[in-house]
Model the fold of this input.
Amino acid sequence: MFSPRRLRLFLVSAVVLVCFILYFTGDVRRAQALRATSTSQMGTSNPNSKGSSPGNHGYGKDSDGGVFDKLRPGSLRPGEKTKPDIADNSKTQTALPGKEEKVKGKDTETEETKSEDETVKEEMNAILKRSPIIIFSKSYCPYSKKAKYFMLEKYDISPVPFVVELDEHPLGKKLQDLLATNTGRRTVPNVLVNGKTIGGGDDIEALYLSGELGTKLQTLGGKRVTAAPHSEGPEP
Done:
């Protein structure tokens, strides 16, 4: 026979055990009911889908999704607006309209200028090779006529000076510009001996009157040039 004390302990333990069983049984039932309700809601929100895909978790467009919707990457809460993507323009380069054409135009213009300058220089070099003494003149210029008179009529010079009438030459203006750059003298006449200027009409006249013209020509011309006074000719 059990003592009254043990009997009471046994009864209390039995009651506690029954309470625990009833409590956990109720939790299981509530969990099953909640799961059934969630499944029913998912089926109602997406009636055309046969099953929920792993990425969507079975939630429809209007479902709040509970905690899982909040944790789902990229999901938006009700009332939130999508943030527009900010384009990274730091590495984007847009070609300006007409820029390439302008560059090509400048290159073409530069090439044409270089080609013209080279042509003028080549012509100048060709002229300087014609004789050690070159007279750059203009046919209508009285000072040019004076220089040609003293150089060609008053002196017997060998080799004979080569005369370039700039007003009749197709590159006359460009040649005159090049003379101004090379000799520092732009006006005509411009008398060169071995590429060095000895002046214009008044300078040639002064050298002739002082008797130094022949000496000047031979000094600058070297052994290639001989200059001797010519017989008297008519005044210019």
Remarks:
- Residues 116-225 form a domain with the Glutaredoxin fold (CATH 3.40.30.10).
- The first strand starts at residue 133 and ends at 137.
- The beta strands are 133-137, 155-158, 162-165, 190-193, 196-197, 226-229.
- The two ends are 172 Å apart (CA to CA).
